[in-house]
Design brief:
Arc Repressor Mutant, subunit A, Jelly Rolls, ExsA-like_N, 11 strands, alpha+beta, 290 residues, DNA-binding, globular, transcription, 5-stranded mixed beta sheet, 6-stranded antiparallel beta sheet, 2 domains, 11 helices
Length: 290
């Protein structure tokens, strides 16, 4: 079943969150029940699991991040997940998600003076162990979640920089990943759009994924498609929704979310305007010919 994709960190405010003045957010969660869903990452994310298992599905592969493990994920991607506690820990799931912006990564490399050999080969996604230093760091954050009103903006930035220095000491492979947290330049706009149009992307996301500035992306997109990006996205998503409703028989809600729309009412209105039938009527018509 297709579910609406939550946007992270935007839709995770109900979690324990630490966020100030546009700096990256830090989220902490504890659960005693299993959960699953879809999530669109608006920032780069470092997932740190303290108890339980957080299983990520991405690119046709599964990555089970277990107790005392971590994983770095690039922004502007859609993941599916299952998260649950393990019986040996009383079914407790305890994890932190660190949302890290590009400017913070740039600040870190200026401060750290780390140098790396030039390599075009991307560092593959990997699950890494958490060392004792990282465990102490995670424990040091716990009090901040009970003292929301006392946090300073600069302290937030410093705590995230501390996180990155801790990782640099413990795991150089993760540092290589941070260094490569940028899209490959001059990727095909056509291929990139076909791979991402069903995600809840913004124009800035698409420019980032294409390796171009926003102004360059909009200009080159218009040269290729001869229409504005938002118009192309809406029409391509409607085509996908129609295909799902007529060929696979999914529900209207599932067709809405699977094709990249985020609101069923809006989806139904634009679908009827384009095809002359509501999504429900289109789905019902399919049944007449089976």
């Amino acid at each position: 079943m297709y579910k609406k994709a939550a946007k992270a960190p935007q839709d995770l405010i109900r979690m324990g969150m630490l966020k100030r003045n546009g700096y990256s957010a830090i989220g902490a969660c504890s659960y005693s029940a299993a959960a699953s869903g879809r999530m669109y990452l608006q920032d780069h994310v470092l997932l740190v699991v303290l108890e339980g298992t957080y299983k990520i599905r991405l690119g046709g592969r599964e990555y089970p991040v277990r107790k005392h493990e971590m994983m770095l994920l690039q922004k502007a991607i859609l993941i599916e997940y299952d998260k649950y506690g393990n019986s040996e820990s009383g079914d407790l799931l305890d994890y932190m998600m660190f949302f890290i912006k590009d400017d913070l990564i740039q600040d870190f490399f200026k401060l750290s003076k780390y140098t790396f050999p030039v390599s075009e080969a991307p560092v593959p996604l990997a699950i890494s162990p958490i060392d004792e230093r990282m465990l102490y760091y995670a424990a040091s954050l716990k009090p901040y979640f009970q003292e929301q009103e006392k946090k300073e903006d600069e302290l937030m930035r410093l705590k995230l920089l501390e996180l990155m220095f801790n990782m640099g000491e413990a795991n150089q492979a993760l540092l290589y990943q941070f260094l490569q947290l940028k899209p490959r330049k001059w990727s095909s706009i056509v291929e990139m759009m076909e791979n991402n149009y069903t995600n809840p992307v913004t124009l800035a996301d698409l420019a980032y994924l294409s390796g171009r500035s926003l102004s360059t992306f909009k200009r080159e997109f218009r040269q290729i498609y001869r229409e504005p990006t938002f118009q192309w996205l809406r029409n391509r998503r409607l085509e996908k929704a129609k295909e799902l409703l007529t060929d696979s028989g999914v529900s209207v809600t599932e067709a809405c979310f699977a094709s990249g729309f985020e609101n069923v009412t809006h989806f139904s209105a634009v679908f009827k305007k384009k095809y002359g039938l509501t999504p429900s009527a289109m789905r019902a018509a399919r049944g007449q010919y089976e």
